[in-house]
Amino acid sequence: KKVDRLLIAFERVQRVHSTASLLIVGGGKEEENLKALSVSLGIANKVKFTGWVTHDRMPSCLAEFDLAVHHYASDYMSPLKLFEYMACGLPVVGPNTPAVKEVFQDGIHIVLSEGTTESLTEKLLFMIANGDFRLKLAAAGEALVRDHYSWEKNADLIVKTICARVERLEHKNNR
User: Fold this and answer.
1) Which terminus of the chain has fewer CB atoms gathered within 10 Å of its CB, N or C?
2) Looking at the predicted structure, is the pLDDT value of residue 153 above 90?
């Protein structure tokens, strides 16, 4: 997930905002390499790695965030985490991919990063410096997800789609 780019960007952010901290939630085969990178970048004391987190612990992790970052995804992906972050009322930096742009508007619901270290650094610095913007972004993202992308809304859409399909088939069979 290109977390190394996030760490490098965060080191650059640290040069400007020395009180900033980074929480990396989750674990995997690259975790030790990422910890070593944070040491070599001189930011290990500002980065906390949670390791694997159970679902019931996620709310307490998300409560620690001032800003959520999911900066990288393949072009075809629209990461579920973006919806989860927004549902929690968090401002989000996300990947500039076609699938994400189908749902979210850059600067309205989300701030999109090109996935490069430079772009990510720029977006993080912008978000940190613009508290009022972060609040507006978080509110708009939360409203969009709540109003259009809740599990209930998704279930309603599925049921409506199935019912419409059944009606078309019945109409076709009754001709």
Assistant:
1) C
2) no
